[in-house]
Design goal:
Elements lengths: L6 H12 L2 E2 H10 L22 H4 L2 H16 L6 E6 L5 H13 L1 H6 E6 L3 H10 L1 H5 L3 E4 L2 H5 L5 E7 L8 E4 L2 E7 L5 E6 L3 H10 L8 E4 L1 H14 L4 E11 L1 H5 L8 E4 L2 E3 L10 E3 L2 E2 H10 L3 E7 H9 L5 H4 L5 H15 L8 E8 L3 H5 L9
Parallel strand pairs: 2-3, 2-5, 3-4, 5-10, 10-14
Antiparallel strand pairs: 1-7, 6-7, 6-9, 7-8, 10-16, 11-12, 11-13, 15-16
Helix pairs in contact: 4-5, 11-13
Bound molecules: S-adenosylmethionine.
Amino acid sequence: MTEFSTLRERITDVIRREGPIPFSRYMEMCLYEPGLGFYAREREVFGKAGDFYTSSDVHAVYGRLLCRQFDEMWRVLGEPETIDLVELGPGRGLFALDVLDWAAKKFSGFAAALRYRLVETSEYLRKRQAERLSHHVAVGRASIHASLANAEEKCGAALIVFGNEFFDALPVEVVTAKGQVYVDVDASGRFVEVTRAETPEIAEFIDRYGVRPEEDQRVEVALAGQSWVREIAALLKPMRRGFCVFVDYGYTRNEQLAGRHLDTLMTYRQHEASPDPYAAPGEQDITAHVNFTALRAAAEQSGMHHAGLLTQSQLLLGIGEKTQFGDALDECRLPQERAKVLLQLKHLVTPAGMGEIFHAMILSHGVAPEAALNLSGLSFTR
Ligand SMILES: C[S@@+](CC[C@H](N)C(=O)[O-])C[C@H]1O[C@@H](n2cnc3c(N)ncnc32)[C@H](O)[C@@H]1O
């Protein structure tokens, strides 16, 4: 039980006691406050009955194609006896299940080596993942962790780190031409924005990886994403070899310099998008597009190799081309089943669907750059 019945009351209490809070703190509470935040409450947020769809909600072929890519990565790493696949922010565990099941069915060598480690901050989602993956957990093929540090203790020398829409769910700062946005409460109890001079860290981020907002413009600064990349690099660097695959919607600095992707903060509630993060705290997802230029810089500064950034469409076409997307149609018996699955695949791949909104960033460590470049998923970058 929480002391406050609504998240609005809880946030108001914090602001009344501590003064205005940085936007990132507000966003963090909206999404993750125990018992009250959007991802912490016991309700469905994914899929048709929830608030938004991710690629794994569309069809298992997404996980199956990525499984094919992970198998290839395992081979590039020399087919080690064990490989840990760490998934960040696995949501309701659909992707993990699709990968584990497909590995067992199609890639026996990889499946025997695979130890799937889910890293999830929401206690409620961890519970759901444990239920969904119960038979994989029971035999030690999957394990569920509340933090990366906890998963790390178990990891061996070969590693793949995967995240689908993980970085877009991390709290961001918002900056306007007047400064950094803080959230305050006015006399009538409404949340209102006030601005203060931005911290040197935020100013540096904007100068290096973003653009300065002009009058009436807003930009996001994702310091939490940078910390995550550094943490992941620290996990890989000392003794380990492996890959990272991060799929998310996002942009590069060049696109921002061309005037695009400013003010990308959005909310989703029952499949309706809105730009207002104050409308329904805890009831709506809040998300911001990912700055891939900043993530790449954090990765390279931490000693990782940036193998490529490409669209989801290019990634999936690259992986599926050789087998003519047989992974999609494997269990379809009837022509109408095939037709339905082909439409779902099309949605994942075409620009009108999810194919060009989402990008995949692939990083490697301890792998020859040419070997990384030869991965089928990266064939469109060659
Ligand atoms: C947008 S959802 C994506 C879920 C899933 N990957 C998918 O594609 O359906 C973001 C996920 O990241 C999790 N998450 C956010 N911050 C986290 C953190 N610091 N550590 C672990 N998981 C986190 C959320 O609880 C949620 O499961």
